Amino acid sequence: MSSESTAESSTVNTYGIRGFPARCVCGTKTTIYTSETNKNLGRPFFRCHTRRKTHLFKWVEDAVYEEVQDALPKIVLLEAKLNKEKSDIEDLKGVVTELMEEVVRTKTEVKRCKVMMTILFVIMCVIIIVLVVSLM
Ligand SMILES: [Zn+2]
């Protein structure tokens, strides 16, 4: 923020630029100056570098107010989006829990199948041994 002494005009020339004016309508960058007049002592304002009376002049507090005003609807949308995301996360947690239960059930079933296969293998071996012995 520049603190150089300026005799700012009491006329606000925003040219409809909302929020922080990066540039004046003439294309020149704006700078923040601090008022040193008795009426507005210490009050910051944006002004065109050219400092011409008809160029941009805007109080910083007005720009901040507009920035906040413009941001509020976006914040409401972001809050709604955040709540939707939270809801989706809760749904996904439910899906993960169901999948984990499915994995446990499947593991138990696979163990049972392995035991059955082992028993069948042993039975087949016994049958083959009995057949081979009976044929000898
Ligand atoms: Zn200008």
UniProtKB/TrEMBL annotation:
Cross-referenced InterPro entries: Znf_GRF
Transmembrane segments: 115-135
Record GO terms (molecular function): zinc ion binding
Residue ranges of domain GRF-type in the record: 24-63
Keywords: Coiled coil, Membrane, Metal-binding, Transmembrane, Transmembrane helix, Zinc, Zinc-finger
Entry annotated with the keyword NADP: no
Residues in coiled coil: 75-109
Protein name: GRF-type domain-containing protein
